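Hi again,

Forgot to attach this to my earlier email, sorry! This is the prediction with pyridoxal-5'-phosphate bound. I've pasted everything inline since the attachment limit keeps bouncing my files.
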Amino acid sequence: MYTAESFNERVRCMGFVPSNRVAEIETFKVMDLLKRAKQLDVAGFDVVHMEAGEPDFSTAAPIAEAAKKAIDSAAIQYTPAAGIPELREQISLWYQSKYGLEIAPERIIVTTGASSALLMIFALLTDAGQTFMMADPGYPCNRQFLRFLEAKAQLVPVTAESNLQLTSELVEEHWQEDTAGVLLASPANPTGTVVPEAQLRAISEQVKQSGGSLIVDELYHGLTYEQDVPSVLEIDNSAFVVNSFSKYFGMTGWRLGWLVAPEEAAPELEKLAQNLMISPHTVSQYAALAAFKPETLEILEQRKEQFRLRRDLLVGGLRSLGFELPITPEGAFYVYAGAKHLTDDTFDYCWRLLEEDHIATTPGKDFGHYRSNEFIRFSYTTGLDRIQVALDRLEQRIHG
Ligand SMILES: Cc1ncc(COP(=O)(O)O)c(C=O)c1O
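Structure tokens for the complex follow:
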């Protein structure tokens, strides 16, 4: 809420009156850091980029080829709001081959990235004034989506004891009258940890018992390095699932994702999609048809192997430098490392790493409140040689 003074100050500075809603939405704290990292690049400094949340690989050739063909051969017009039928069908087949699940294409809605899938599902499930429970630390935009909807994220601190994930006990303990549901991410950003199957089952039961809804962000499925993780749909057919072509399929800039909803909820979400997006990106949808081809999957599996090697190098290196890493991250491409032995203000420390050692990382502050000033997120979205350069520079900084 504005005070009269802050209201007048805003009008004076901005020339318009932003809503409370937008005024309260937070920026990514890392954005300024990112801007500075780019400036240092341009100025010729050798910056190791470990701040990005996207694969460094270019779009796999079969996907790029399919996009070019689509541009040459089809009119690029609006598609159905829920996506082209061929792609919904392909995604349905993906569930069959990957998880052995029969998911009707009508339950799948193609979206502009997981971002709009999350926004639409939150909009469907959350009334103004309600809360949605999620782990702290977690992906920052979820908090802002909920604020946008006049609702609120209920952040529950998670520790290594529960694999840095929510548990059914935590859900039960923190459930409030105004809780609309629970969001899980497995593997998660920034921790890379997964929710074990038994826990997924227990949480699903607990959420049902409490009368809420369960959303599982499965965006990093395909990028797990010990074993595949189950989809929540193998356990709970009434859960909402969010996924995307951004991470495993390496298509961040194509802005394409999908959601799976219970049968009765799909038409409601389609209604939202019509109004909010009209349709997902047409060229990207035709490109994504090639994402499931065996030749593409072969490329993606090779890249996953690269990610595994990078993770092992980074985790081993950070541990030997004294970073707190009680759990080896099983998936995604992040390491969320405790740096209490070095600083009690990782925001400031990340700036120093950038300015003095030319290593770009993301401070914990972006991901929540719980011990966030003690943590740094390192993305291994850069080659093994660059990760080694970063580790050498860290070694130099810490041990001289
Ligand atoms: C956990 C999580 N969910 C959702 C998103 C949004 O992804 P998309 O590019 O599909 O919109 C991200 C992006 O980094 C993420 O880490």
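The chain has a mean pLDDT of 95. Residues 294-320 form the longest helix (27 residues).

That should be everything now.

G.
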